[in-house]
Amino acid sequence: MIPVNTPLLDGKEKAYLTECIESGWISSEGPFVRQFEEKVAERMERTYGIAVANGTAALEIAAKALGLGPGDEVIVPSFTIISPVQAITKLGAVPVLVDSDPHTWNMTAEGVSAKITNRTKGIIVVHIYGMPCDMEPLLQLAEVNGLWLLEDAAEMHGQQYKGRPCGSFGAISTLSFYPNKHITTGEGGMILTNNAVLADHCASLRNLCFAPERRFKHYELGWNYRMTNLQAAVGLAQMERLDYFVEKKRQMGTTYHEVFRHSPHIQIGLHETEYAQNIYWIYGVVLNKQYPHNAAFMQARLAEKGIDTRPFFYPMHLQPVFYSMPWYLSHDFPVATTLADRGFYIPSGLGLSTSDQLKVISTVQKVLDIHAHT
Ligand SMILES: *Cc1c(COP(=O)(O)O)cnc(C)c1O
Fold first, then answer.
1. Could you say which of 50, 179, 218, 264 is the most buried, measured as most Cβ atoms within 10 Å of its Cβ?
2. Are strands 148-152 and 160-161 parallel, antiparallel or unpaired?
């Protein structure tokens, strides 16, 4: 089976991990945590980086630090992982969902604009699958309406929007370092901001909100969402190779693009727009409307031929966990619904070899052709 993702860990990861073990610094108190935070913040052109346990934790802390509470509305895409939406609901606030653009698969300023009310407090922008959202109109919308913008840049390490790094937009940005992201720490995440007050608050929320004057005394409830020195050691080694990783992903994506753009059966992610070149976090394909099968069927056929795949996100407006929530509205979001039904992604990790990629290409083409009329 050709796996859907294999990370590349052949830089200084092992050397830095050995340093942790030999020095005995394995907890969050170790020196790699600060070094990793500084390295990521510098790269994303932010003043502060706060390393945490995972990308979901980063979003939870960020939403809390931004002051979100009961009754507040936050605009967020339906087509996303649940993490940004649960960060909103866990604080008693209301996620207001928007559909995606059918070509970029991202939320748009027009979609957001239609959902702003006098209870709207902010926008969580989620960049999907390697192509950033069109940020300028979103930032402008936030500013004109006095809203904060939180950027979920979990899939965007090393990506730029009009020459500015993703992870640098809005009041706070968050990252994930899960093994399928461009940079991994096994599990891990980071909060990025230029605001010293927000940065302090996030650092406190990550560490149980210990009072500055007395350990084990608390004025607020937080979490233990700290990152270990072991994770940060891996992350630092990974960051040293970010440019190479981005280049490698772009090569992988371009190779797929050159073949699949000619396919009559599928829609593929945009290779470039006027504001960015895709960095192909994953290589996604969407079966055309006329194609006689859905993603689940084709994924099963590909698995039989040794190609591992994953489905696209399952949209928030179809989540059973939200049906009973008081804010839930049974709106249809047709683009998100179609993406979930007809989209999946093929092997696209950093460790994918050229020969395996060629095998994926020929198998996917063959399987798509075989089932086009049966
Ligand atoms: C991966 C991902 C997350 C969650 O990160 P974890 O580290 O797995 O918790 C959040 N948002 C987006 C857009 C992601 O792709």
1. 50
2. unpaired
Closest CA to ligand 1's atom 6: 55
| Cβ-contact 344, 284 below 8 angstroms | yes
Provide the whole-model pTM. 0.97
pLDDT digits (tens, 9 = 90+) for 92-134: 999 999 999 999 999 999 999 999 999 999 999 999 999 999 9
Judge if the beta carbon of residue 155 lies within 6 A of ligand 1. Answer: yes
Order the strands of the 172-176 sheet from edge to edge: 48-52, 189-193, 172-176, 148-152, 120-126, 73-77, 94-98
- Comparing CA positions, the residue from 46, 153, 245 lying closest to residue 37 is 46
Residues 142-197: tens digit of each pLDDT: 999 999 999 999 999 999 999 999 999 999 999 999 999 999 999 999 999 999 99
CA dist 195 and 86 (Å) reads: 24
Considering all CA atoms of the chain, what is the largest pairwise distance in Å, rounded to the nearest integer?
A: 71
Tell me which residue has its CA closest to atom 12 in ligand 1. 154
Residue 127 tokens read as 């960049």
Integer Rg of the chain from CA: 21
Pinpoint the alpha helices (H) of 261-313.
295-304
From the CA of 103, how far away is ligand 1's center (Å)? 22
The Cα–Cα gap between 276 and 59 comes to: 24
The finding on whether 154 has its CB within 6 A of some atom of ligand 1 is yes
Residue with tokens 């979003």, as numbered in its chain: 59
Between strands 214-218 and 210-211, the pairing is antiparallel
Residue 230 C-alpha to ligand 1 middle, in angstroms? 20
**From the CB of 55, is ligand 1 less than 6 Å away?**
yes
**What phi and psi values does residue 227 have, to the nearest 5 degrees?**
-95, 140
